[in-house]
Structure formats: structure tokens, C-alpha cells
Predict the structure of Aminopeptidase.
Amino acid sequence: MSRGVDMEEIDLSDQRGLIAMAEMYAHGGPPEPAAYANNAFEDTGSAHFRPGRNGSDDITKILHRPTAAASAPNTPRKMAPVSANGSSASSPPSTAVKFRRGVGHGERGRRISCSIPALLLFLGLMGALLFVGIVATFFLTKEHYVKGAGGADGPLIPGAIHANETTKDVATDTAHDDPDVEIDTTGPTPEELRLPKALEPVWYNLTLRINIPGYVPLPPEKNLTFSAALIMKLDVKESTDKIELNMLNLDLPTDTSQYVILVDGLRPNANVSLPPDVDESENTTATTHEIQKRQSGIVRSDSGIKVNKVTFNETLEKVIFELSDSLEQGKIYFFQFRYGGAISNKLAGLYVTSYHDAKGETHYAAVTQMEPTDARRMVPCFDEPEFKAIWRIRVHHPVGSKAISNAKEILEEEPDTKFPDYVYTTFDETPKMSSYLLALIVSDFEFVEGHTDRGTRFRIWSRKEALEETDFALKAGVTVLQFFEGFYGIDFPLQKQDMIALPDFAAGAMENWGAVTYRERALLYNDKLYTPLQKQYVATVVAHELAHQWFGNLVTMKWWNDLWLNEGFATLMEYSGVDAIDPQYKMNDYFLLDALDNALARDSMATSHPLSFPILKAEDVSEAFDQISYDKGASVMRMLRTVLGEANFKKGLNIYLTRHAYSNAEHTDLWKALTEAVPENLTSWTGEKLDVDDFAKKWTEQMGYPVVSVTTTNKGVALSQHRFKVDEHSLEGPKYRNAKYWYKWDVPIWYSVDGKEQPMTWLHTDNEFNLSNPDSLIFINSESNGFYRVKYDAKQTDKINAQLIKDHTAIGMRSRARYIDDVFTLAQAGHVPYEKVLEMSRYLVHEEDYVPLDLALSGFRIISEYFGDEPESVYYKKYINSLFEKRYNAIASEVFSDTEPKDADFFTTQTHKLITRTVCDLDIEDCARRNSEAYIQNFVYPCQNIKNAIASNCSTVPVSVRGMVYCEGVKFGNSKDWDRMLEMFERESVQVERDRIMFALACSRDTFTLKKLMNMAVDINNTVIRLQDKATVFSFVGNSHIGSELIFDFFIENWDKLYNGLKDQQTLLKRFVQASLSGKSWRRVKEIENFLEENKATTSNLDVFKQQLESVQTNARWMEKNYDNLIKWFKAASAKSAP
Ligand SMILES: [Zn+2]
């Protein structure tokens, strides 16, 4: 790796000062400022660094939250059909693949993904091992379940293997023999990819000099580099003659004498030679050296062990030091050396970010993003979550910059006499933590400060010009941190919490312990430019990341296969956290149309996967950071929380977090702790005390969820369960065809009879309820706490529909919402006649609650997508207009003139926006006129005479409709309008505004312009559209009628280019695929199949292709079955509603 280059000399003697300090701390002693007086760096050589390995610096893998930027601005949720990736659009798309609703949408089409890995090749291989285990477990548990259930039901899915088939058949079908399952056997084994457990890091002592431009004069060869001195304390668990660390793209000395291994305690008759880091002039003899060390409290001496050979392995991302002798078991060693590296521009590891101020000057910052496996790009270390260690960080940074890290600074901006251009900032030691949580930010950002009641210092950092937009984050952050202290029953373990808004950050946010990083739009808030939903989004992201400070940071998953637990839990907690910030958001209601709906939609596809799933190839890893992990994870945890009751859930959580604090755990540890909190009277379906593990695993180890069928009996109703798929003809991949528990679940049944909530009961195989009054109205999953759908038979359906029409308020809001969402989806899947659902929908004219209304309009949106721009869609439009025209007319002038009361309730403003968008999507004249007026009067006129106008300053379009107005302006404007938008886009510094403009650029109806935009988006080197936004632009284009046709061909033509440019950036590539491959015809199915056949080598490992193909097939089937009937219904309905 380091090929004979001169290492920058960093004086490690200073490092011992740091060690002294660390150890004194450990013994309760004070820090010793003198220890830092020495200069840690000697500029005696020039640094040459290996260029970064191309492609491995994957920007998109660190999408900690697929950001809200990935969705249409100013768009009510699900106003737009959605693509399967979380990208969305708000103008009417016509592409059927996007019908899978809920999968990312609206301005909130984000999921708070915490980091998408790219380089976890080894994860894939670990997965293979796991998989073997799962297959084995399968046989054991299958039989158990079948017995417990009193016999299996036979195949629920076409092609599924029957439960009584032999072990051999299942094994054959499940794994290697199937052409669909390709396991790369040429790569390294899982064991090779993991680090051995012979050594454990106790602490790292890291001093870094950061060379970034814009502060002080820098020699060109130093620009965007860093140099470092590292000491790690190692505990030898097993004797070994190797030190193996993770490392990538760093420059280590080739001269093996540069590595020093010391040992704790003096060796008897020590005749040690002087360690090479010791300055001869100061230490003339070894004895003096040792005495000095003793005086400073350190008893440490040369171990006599030398590094003989240093080997780098890029595939394994490792460096291996071969030693002259073995490190002895039970002993403590100190391994120290200097190294250097480049500060990359790829948003992984230590990287540079930049922004322009109002004067147009560029400012630079060096920041980090480590999750999941990029700490190794900054420091050679044990880069696996289980190797927790203390980190002591000291930074040498240019005058004018400030440094932030996980722990509180203990010495700040300490001058350096040798290098007056540089200062030191020294941080306290961190608690034991995983390397992926390490953070370092060197910038000229400024901060606002507050404190929690317990005195935890809280700071929000941003570039200076955005500092006044940090108040909301500070208030929200302090509130929610205190809330979680109460909720977890554990004080926040750090002295301070920083939250930093980064102008250019691929991730949405990252939960680094004590130093959370955000995209600006996820942390800043400006009441003139943000919609209420965008404000809620900020609260949500803050709550999510702070929830991780305990769940994830204090207690960390042992290995990445439990990532779903980490993310599912934080997603669940973000709703509680936001309620603590502002109860008007009613997040437990909002959950229904956000996480729950997303999860139910995604998990009804055959191309879904279990929460806990075997990873068979590297590409599978990006799947772990999807709606299943976040939204289904949260939904299943929420169901579990309801089963246990909030108090027991909290109690179990406290047991878990206390028991595993500063350590690691697996999901079974959580189940165990929760089980300990189960009261005696809480029983499972067997009547025995509930075992959380037994309940949870059915929901986490097999994909999908049940639909509970409700059938009228003589005495009441009978319940049974089947797996629900939106398209029963779609077939899962072989590895999931035989679910571990045969697609049966222990379903907690909450229900109400005539509006009265009944005690929870279980549905294992079947169940029956007697009703004293046969006319009673029964609702299953009445509060929407369960992760399942409910199908009522015709008799019950008629009863419910009649009640909705007669007086919908007699049914609780959550019951209505659940019913509407289920019934639209069941109709889509062919389980319920559409006509019944549509007749029921007439009641919507009176529906005032946002949640059921939004879910109903989602159902309609799907139908509208099937109709596309066919001439017959006019009947559909007439019907929808008849439902909402009156209400639109009553609110439109308020909405378009921004005269809605500022203190209006969140759900009221959301409802107004939803109705406005719904009616505007019907192409009615009134809306077109209002859009056009607003565009001219509030955007064109106020901005046109300003030199270098910036939209966020000059535009006066009400923010709640601004995205739509810009879009319509471009759509009906000329090339001048588009060019002006592009200029505005380039100049805009406020991210929410820039997203609106970006959305508008994709609204052009001119194919030449759209192609120009797409070319900018696919060109990885084009800087007008930042890398982080490129796929979003593409999906915006794909979501208009014109764009969706264009984009398919464009994608096919450009696939090779896209693949070659992005093959190491799976997430980005995946989003391009999702935006492009859609449709609703068998012709399109054929086209995609042909394309996949011709491009097998580049497409076969990307599951996203299978998902998109499934969607198009499902759509094509839907069209055959439903299109004509529905047109007929809407035609008749619109005739009826016509004046
Ligand atoms: Zn997260």
C-alpha cells in the first residue's frame, strides 16, 4: 500500500502524553495540560498518498436516511404514485410500477435509513453461513409449528412446497440448485472477512492533523490530506503472532521499524533499546526513558516484539502485521505507529464538504461518515460493531476552524508554537463504543447552545448564514433527549450532544454518539420556507437519531444482521419522540399512514424479504436498509409494544439497556429482557405465559403478513388467517418460498363490538366470537395496532359500508382508517369486489379526518395510475371531483393566497393541502388558473429584476403549494422558464427550496429538455446536480406521463453507462432502476424480460429488477381484470353525479 513513500513524521512521544492522560483519567486523576504542549507533528517529509480506490467510495451507501429530498416537495403524502424505492413524485405519474403504494412518497418519502453499506461484501458471505443455519433451523421448527398448529394448511402460494415434503426437497429447492440463487464461491470466506478474536482493543489514542483549504496557506501536496499518530491498547485473549486490523486506502510506513509494540509493566532485567519514537536528544538512555515513564504514571516498556512484515489486502479491507514473536495471552500491549491518508470527496470515511456563502466564496469542512464500515478509511482499527473501545481523539486543525468529535473537548484551540497556523483541540475519552459511531467535524460552522435539565450541553451547528434556522432543532433536541432519558429510564451518558447540519451530505442523518450529523433540510427550520410537514420531518429525524443514542449506541447490535432491530426500533421511537416535541402531530395516528402503510404495501409483494434475512450476496446488503427494516421493523415492534402494554415494554427495555450497556446484544437478548417484564396474566395462544421470542420470531423470520378473514356464523363471526399478497400469482424467490413457519402467525386480535373495545385474544389457526346481537358491528384490528389486514365477508362488509354511509362518525377514526386501507388493497388484490369499495367511497364527501381520507385517496391514486392518461380517465376525474369540489372551492383561495391561519392544526392544514392537490390533479380549470397566477405574480415578477435572484429570497408563492406552482409554471412555460429554473437551482442554498426547483425542472413537457436533464443526472461528473440528488432527478422525470415513457427507453439505451458508472454504488443504481422500469402492459413485461435476458451479467444480482418486474406483471394482470369494469362504474357514477 505504502510504496516507499516518505511518511510525514508525527512525533509519537506526544502520544504517550495522551496515554498518560488517559490512564490518569482511568485512575480518577486530572488531565495534565503539559502533556499536550508538545507538538505531535513534525513536518519533515512530504506525504504521498495512495489514490482512493475508484468506486469503493460509494456515496450512496451512506444514505442514513434516504433523504426527504428524494421525494417531491410540497406534495401531500401519496399524492403521487410511488416507486418502490422511496423516491416519489407529485405530478401524476403514469407508470404502473409505481402503483405499489406507500413505498416512499410525498415530501416525506424518506425512510430514516441509517446508512447503506456498499463494501460489505463480507456481510454477504457471512450471510451464506447464516443461511445454512436458518435452513437447519427451518427443519427443526417447521415440524414443531406444524404440530403446534394441529397440522399445516398446505401450500398457500402457488408453487410452494407442501409442509409434508421431505427435508431433501426443501433443501434442494431453497438453495444452491436454483438458478435464481447465485452464490459467489470465488470470493473470500466469511471467516476471512471477519477479524479474528484473539485481540481486543481497549482504547485508541488518535491524533490527527487535518489539512483542508480555505483557512491557512497549504502546500499543494498537503491539500486535502491528513496525517495521524495512533496508539492502540490491546488485550490479548489468545496468544497470536499477528495483528489484524481493518484498513482501506490509508498510507502506512513500509519501514517496519516504524511500528512499536510496548508491553504493560517492566520486563525483568529489561535491557530495552530505545523505542524509535523517542527523541534521542531528550532521552539519552533507556533508563531515563523508563524513569520518565514511571514518573508520568506509565509502566510500559518495549515488548521486544517487532513487526516483521506488513501485508495489505484490499479485497478484505485489512492490514496484517506479522510479528517476530507471539503476543502473550492475558497481557496488555500497546501498538503504535504513524500514518496518513487523503481526505476524500466521496462522502465516506473522512471527507471534504463545501458550501458557498452569500458573497460566493467557497468554504470547506472535513467531516466523517463511518457507518457501517468506513471508519477503516480514517483509522486502521477493529472495524466491527462488537469491538467496542474507548476513543481518545486529538485534532490538529487550521486556525479559524473548530473541531467537533463524539466526546466533549477538554482543551480547545490550544496554540502550537511550531505551527502557528494550527491549533489543537483535545477531546475527553469516549465511553466504550463501536467504530461506526466515530465522528469528527473540522469546519468554520457556528453554533447555538442550550442545556437539558440535567445539565447536558446541547449545541446545534451550521454554516453561519443558516444559524438563525437552528432554533427549532435546539428546542426539539433538548426536549426529546430529556424525553428519552425518562422513557429509557437511563440518563444520557455523555456530557454533551452536538447536532451538525452539513450542507452536502449524502445521508439524511447519522446517529454518531454525541455528534449527530444531518443534511441541512433534516435539521434546519425556517417558518417562511418550510411546510408544516417539512417541520414535522425535522422533528422526526431529530427524534430518530436521538433514540439511537441509547438503542444502538449505548447498546449496539453484535453484527449487522440485526440492523433491522436497530432501525425498526428507532423508527418506532421517532413517533413517540415527536409527540414529546409537539403533541399536535398526533404521531400515533400518523404512524398509520406512514410506517404502517409503507410496510404493509412493501411486504405484500413476493419480492419482499423477512426482517431477519440471510444475505447471500453483497447486493443483498443494501436490501437490509429498506422499508422492511425501518417500517415493518417499527410496525412489528409497535404491535409487540401493544401486546405487552406500554409499561411492561418500557420495563423490559430498561432491563435490556441496563444489562447490555456499553456492550453488544442480539435481538434474542431483547426478547429475553422483554419476556422478563411480561406479567403472569399475559398469556400466549397456548394459555402459557407469553414468551416474546416465540411470538416475535414468526413475524421476523418469515416475510409477509396475514390477512384475517372474518366470516359470519350462526352465533357471531369466525376468524381464520392466510398470508396476504397483493398479487397471488407472483412467486417469491426460491429461498423464501418455504417460510419458516409456513406463513402462519400468532396474531394478536384486538377488536371492538359496536364501538366497544374488547380484551385482546389470539388467532393461532382459527377463532370464533359469539355476538349477543347478530347485527352488532364488529371491527378486527380496530385500533390499527396489528400488522395484518382484515377481510370481512359480504355480510359484514355490507354492514360496515351501510354504517359509513349513514353516519361514519359512529365508527372510530382508526377503525375507519384501517378498514379503508384494507378494503382498497383487498380490492386491488381481487379479494373484494371493487364496486363495493367504490360505493362505500361515496361517504368520503363527509370524511374530515386526515388519516382515513389520505388512505382512501391513496387507494384512488392507484386506480388513477392504472387509468393513466387514457381518454376514459375523464369519468374517474368527474367522480373524484364530485366528492371534493365543494370543499376545494371553500378553501382554494385561502390555500393559494397563504391566508390560512398560521396556528392552524397540523392535520387541518394537511387535509386542505390534500384536497387541493387531489382536485388540482384532475386538471380542473380553476386550479390551472390559480397556479398560473401564482407563478407569474409571486415568482416571475418578484424575482425577474433582481440580479442573481435567489428563489428562497424573492419568491412569495405560499410554501404549501410552491412545488406545484413551480412545476405547473415550467410545464406550461417555455424554454426560458426552464432555463431560469435551472439558474435558480444552481444558486439556491436552502435545501427545501432547491428540492422544489429540482422537482419543477422535471415537469417540462419538452422531450428535448427532459433528455438534457436526464443526461445531467446520469453524468456522474456533472456538478450542477450533486451526486446525492441525481437519482432523485431521474425519479422526478419518471413520474410524469411524458417522462415515464421517455425514461424507459433512455434507461435501456444508457444502462451500460449507468452500470459502469455506478456499479459500486448499489443504492443509487437501484433508485435509477426503480425510476425507470415501470409499466402496466404485457408488452412492457416482455421488454423488461428481454432486457434482463440480454444483460444477465449486469442485472442478475440486483433484486430491484425482480421487484420492478413483479410490479409490472401485477399491473398487467390488474388491467386485464379490472380496467373495463372500473371504467363502467365511473362512467355510471359520473352520469349520476352530473347536474
Ligand atoms: Zn436509524
User: Anything to note?
Assistant: Residues 112, 114, 511, 544, 548, 567, 570 surround zinc ion (CB under 6 Å).
